[in-house]
Amino acid sequence: MTLRCAVLDDYQDAALTLADWSVLDDQVAVRVLREYIADRDVLAAELADCEIVVIMRERTPFDAELLGRLPRLRLLVTTGMRNASVDLAAAAAQGVTVCGTASSPTPPVELTWALLLGLARHLTTEHRALREGGPWQSTVGQDLAGRTLGVLGLGKIGTRVARVATAFDMEVLAWSQHLTAERAAEAGVQLARNKEDLLRRSDFVSLHLVLSDRTRGLLGEPELRAMRPHAHLINTSRAALVDRTALLTALREGWIAGAGLDVFDTEPLPADDPLRTLPNVLATPHLGYVSERNYRTFYTEAVEDIDAFLAGSPLRRLTAG
Fold it and tell me: 317 an active-site residue?
């Protein structure tokens, strides 16, 4: 019997071109859905005949309610080895195997610096003026050399972001709840006394933390008010690390100079969301992990996961707890 597989949210129509799916031809019929389906009833109906579903990161959450509406589902493959939007306990209870793939930390590092540099040198403003016949030079950019970058979270991504900062002759402060002075020294950065110390001393602040009950809303009104008025906030990690209401107020009232954002509480970002139009926001549509090499890894290993599952030996299984 041929099994049915749906690949969700393939916005760029890249899934079938960046991996060899032909190894599954005799056993699996694959279809790709490019558009995000927000309506849960429509989504459940679209996937009702599928034994296998491949999802891209956290674009479409798979909670207990949705899983319960997909009785044919046997295998759920997520790109990456961590996906907070999948209810792993519910999947296990329903007999659904969940597998992941490798993911490179370098693409979000590169995008972090694209956003930071774009803000520091007002690239979107100057580019628009150049294209539209506006003024020849209208802004004065910020220097990076001698300035301070504050990194909240010194894991795989945060450490790489800090390493780039040193190439720009920046000072680097780092902080997270369990970060030690020894670990900071190993990364060549200084451990801030606390979160507030980092925010007060930094010209740029970049977030690189996993979202949890402890980190949700880590930056609220008091923290954003503690930042320097000329400072910029960069978030390529998780939107919920920052209180949205406080951030909007900070940007509108000038508590901070601006923000570079790649992650949002609701994705895709609604067309009327103010973050689309605030002049001191440089925003991208969650591109942190979107690179050719990363996508090739995602989809190649998704094919491997499916092939291994069909052979009775699942790879890279994700389990609750």
Answer: no
